[in-house]
Amino acid sequence: MSAFASDMAEAMAVRRASRQAKAARAEAEMSIRARAEFLANMNHELRTPLNAIIGFATMLKEGANYKLTPEQRDNYADYVLQSADLLLGHINTLLEAAALDGGELSLEPEAVDLTAALNDAVARARIAADAAKVVIDVKSEGPPAEGWGDPIRMGQALDHIIRAAIKFSPEGSRILVRALIDKDGRAEIAIRDRGEGMTPEAIEKALQAFQETHRGLDRSFAGPGIGLAIAKTFIELQGGRFSIKSKLGEGTLVRISTPPPKSASVTQNDDMKLAG
Fold first, then answer.
1. Residues 191, 117: contact at Cβ < 8 Å?
2. Coil, strand or helix: which one is 238?
3. How confident is the model over 2-60, as pLDDT tens digits?
4. Going edge to edge, which strands form the sheet with 241-247?
5. How does DSSP classify residue 260?
6. Are the C-beta atoms of 182 and 257 separated by less than 8 Å?
């Protein structure tokens, strides 16, 4: 009887190991396919702005042959700047994704002024916002929001969140951004767009690396589509909080917060609420 029980236990262990191996293999295959799709998409995303830079720069250099007017030259120069900004954003995303995937990300936390970090990120996003015909409205009332984190990674996370808001936003709309101290004494940044919003399923996909919500070929999802996932990872690795609240037809609100520095004691109420 004991031999039979032993044989049954061994058989069950073998079957369990086999199921685990199959599950691991399936997960690895899905990961490989996701990375292959990401790289194929990135190939297109890198070539598009690069081709635009080459094309418009060539026309500017040979302006006499094309008989360009001063207004045309200014417009083409703007296109070159916009394409270069887009290309730099894609390259940074690729490098950041590779660092996260390879476990090579380093953090150097210190006291950080989130109000200043937000203003700097908005300034970096001006070219993209102008190209999309979107206005970024910075609310700067109240004391500086001071938190704890890595200033470089914080800036990179903000870049991704603001660029995602720009992509979501229709032409002529406004993006509201604000830094403050929440009721728990944590420095917080809120970024609110008036785009068409996302479903819970779309949010879940947007926060998974190497995936993106599908919206065809429109401007709202140009790019590799992993910026929000990278931003969330950067914030949470620093002990921060990351949340998304969105409603279809109303837009999206992203909040991030960091632990307070030891001297932080000021609190401030948040009036940036999403209806519902």
1. no
2. coil
3. 666 676 677 777 777 777 777 667 665 655 666 666 666 677 778 888 999 999 999 99
4. 135-139, 174-181, 187-193, 251-258, 241-247
5. P
6. yes
